[in-house]
Write a structure and sequence with these properties.
Bacillus phage protein, five-stranded mixed sheet, 3 helices, 26% strand, globular
């Protein structure tokens, strides 16, 4: 059994399969989509991906608008060298941290056509976004316990 969970109204539903339902049937919340992303928001999402998903240590330098991420292989700067919200190859490295990630495009959703789904043993996380990269980043953070306010 898979549990769907809405963080807004705490609605829970058990199901036998993964569904691409992007709206909570109880409160109507659209999962993963709450508005646009500014450049600053994308940098923060990139930083959170580096910390929460990739497991890297980060250090923020607000005076110059740069964050350093310390990986196993060295140091990267955000967003110049690590920006999975923009770079699809780097977003795929985020996908590789999970057993299963489903990504699909629905041409019927014109504002946010990309759906990303991460099923876990206890629940299913979904995110809808304008780009596959952003959908991947949002769903990965939510699966790691960090909700993204957009």
């Amino acid at each position: 059994m898979i549990e769907y969970h809405c963080p807004d109204c705490d609605y829970k539903k058990l199901d036998l399969e993964i569904r691409a339902d992007a709206r909570c049937p109880h409160c109507g919340r659209v999962h993963g989509r709450r508005g646009g992303n500014s450049v600053k928001d994308k940098r923060e999402i990139d930083r959170l991906i580096a910390e929460k998903v990739m497991g890297w240590q980060t250090q923020k330098f607000p005076n110059i608008g740069v964050t350093s991420a310390y990986t196993e292989d060295g140091e990267l700067t955000i967003p110049e060298q690590f920006s999975p919200t923009k770079n699809l190859d780097q977003a795929w490295s985020v996908v590789e941290k999970f057993k299963l990630v489903k990504i699909e495009r629905d041409s019927n959703r014109c504002n946010a056509p990309y759906l990303a789904v991460i099923p876990t043993e206890t629940q299913v996380f979904t995110a809808i976004a304008e780009t596959p990269q952003m959908a991947i980043c949002i769903v990965a953070l939510e699966a790691c316990g960090t909700e993204v306010k957009q």
